Amino acid sequence: MESFFHSLKTELSMHCDYKTRDEARRCRRSRPGTDPHSHAEVASLRASLESARNEIDQSRQAFKGELEALRAVISLTEERARSSERRALAEIDISRRKAGEYEKALAVERRLHQAENERLAKLVAKREAELQAVRDRLVRAETSLGQTSAQLKAEQGKFSRLLSKVRPAGPAVSDRAKSRGRDKRATGAD
After folding, report:
1. How far is CA 116 from CA 103, 107, 131, in A?
2. What are phi and psi of 18, to 5 degrees?
3. What is the dihedral of CA 20, 23, 24, 29, to 10 degrees?
4. pLDDT digits (tens, 9 = 90+) for 121-153
5. What is the SS3 assignment for the chain?
6. Domain layout of the chain by residue ranges
7. Distance between start and end Cα atoms, the chain
8. pLDDT for 133
């Protein structure tokens, strides 16, 4: 029974398809582990396996070191990013506060400007009303001056007629008196 299971195990482990039990036994005898030369091969395979394991361990150690270095770099980068984010948020907060202050100052300045504009508009309206009053008085004064000039001319005409009646028209009137009369008429016409 034992040999049957052994041959069955050999069949399965070697992946061979044996037709009889004898073939399985022959195959088992010719397996690599039973040959004296195979011990050297097994030893070399074990040595190469051991060196491969050592290389894998060294690679694992190197990878572990690189991984730790990368984790440290990532941690540093994350800390820098968080620090930059905090600074940026602080700057944004400061900018918002300053913007709020500037908006308040601007609103105050706008109110002052609007009040000043209203004051100036009232002042301009007042000055325009005063100017219109002065223009009206100037027109009345010019009209009055024109009437007074006309009256003055009329009076000068009357005075000249009266003067001519009072003075004789002869050569007895001196040149000096004539020139005085002309001067008075000239100043009165102006």
Report:
1. 19, 14, 22
2. -95, 140
3. 160
4. 999 999 999 999 999 999 999 999 999 999 999
5. CHHHHHHHHHHHHHCCCCCCHHHHHHHHHCCHHHCHHHHHHHHHHHHHHHHHHHHHHHHHHHHHHHHHHHHHHHHHHHHHHHHHHHHHHHHHHHHHHHHHHHHHHHHHHHHHHHHHHHHHHHHHHHHHHHHHHHHHHHHHHHHHHHHHHHHHHHHHHHHHHHHHHHCCCCCCCCHHHHHHHHHHHHHHHC
6. 1-31
7. 165
8. 95
Helices 21-29/2-14 angle, 10° precision: 70
Residue type, 163: L
| Residue 132 falls in which region: left (phi positive, over 0), alpha (psi -120 to 50) or beta | alpha
Residues in the chain: 190
Q: What is the pLDDT of residue 61?
A: 94
CA-CA distance, 77 to 73, in Å (whole number)?
6
